[in-house]
Amino acid sequence: MAQEYPRWFLNPSDLPCQDIVAGYAKPSFHLDSSVNQAVLSGAETYVKYSNSHLTGGEAYWSTEAGVAWMGSEITLQYDSAAVAVTAVTLQPIDTVYSQDLVIVLLSKGHCELDKRSRKRVAIKDLDTPSWINSIPQDGRYLYAMGQAPKYYYEISSWIEAEERTLKSLAKSIGVEVQAMQKVSQAGQEIRHETYSVSLRDVQTVARWWDLNDGVFYVLLRMPKNVK
After folding, report:
1. Distance of CA 96 to the CA centre of its chain
2. What's the Rg (C-alpha) of the chain?
């Protein structure tokens, strides 16, 4: 697995560019094919982050010993027909090749990267970012963090971390405790949480890979004034 990334991948919110997104693909014998797949992946993410609707629910079992997660059913709705059109309009800004992963930085408009943003840095040489332990808070954005374990294919870890973060963002916007049912006199309860949330103008703030724990992290944000 790769352990070096350009700074734009780890901290995309530092770029002076609007409407940027990263797409992923597994390396193949034909690099052009991998890049095309990464562009489609980025276009799909762009469409999801621009305008999507997430509905679902999760159930928890609460006992004296603690709270156990019982399962979830979550659906993300977005305009899948717009992905192919969006892929044509996005401009490739930079491409990263490694043995395990191809990453393409895409932009909807003009975006120029300086040498510092393109420079690759080794994860082991960097300090753990503060947002891993404390999610940012400010008056402009809602933030959410998600994580995923290290899988055999690195692409699976990054994609799952992003998907979990998107769900976490939706939950932070509004969760309704739909039902509370007492199971026994011992105080055991089943809690069912549901949510139906529109997500718009979501942005990737940062990414991190904890090499010690093998955990991949993603930080997303969404403007609070989105209607």
Report:
1. 18
2. 19
Short-list 107, 82, 136, 118, CA closest to 5: 118
Q: pTM for the complete prediction?
A: 0.87
- SS3 of 37, please? helix
Q: 195 near 171, Cβ under 8 Å?
A: yes
Residue 203: strand pairing partners: 221
Residue pLDDT, tens place only, 194-215: 778 899 999 999 999 999 999 9
**71-96 pLDDT, tens digit each:** 677 888 999 999 999 999 999 999 99
pLDDT over threshold 50, residue 1: no
Copy the structure tokens of residue 211: 């090499």
Q: With beta carbons less than 8 A apart as the criterion, state whether 102 and 34 touch.
A: yes
Domain ranges for the chain, please list them.
Answer: 4-223
Beta bridge partners of 198: 53
Helices and strands: H and E segment counts in the chain: 5, 12
- Structure-block tokens of residue 177: 């405790």
For the chain, percent helix, then strand, then coil, each to nearest 5?
Answer: 30, 40, 30
Dist. CA 41–CA 114, nearest whole Å? 25
Q: What are phi and psi of 25, to 5 degrees?
A: -160, 155
The closest of 52, 53, 50 to 19, measured between CA atoms, is 50
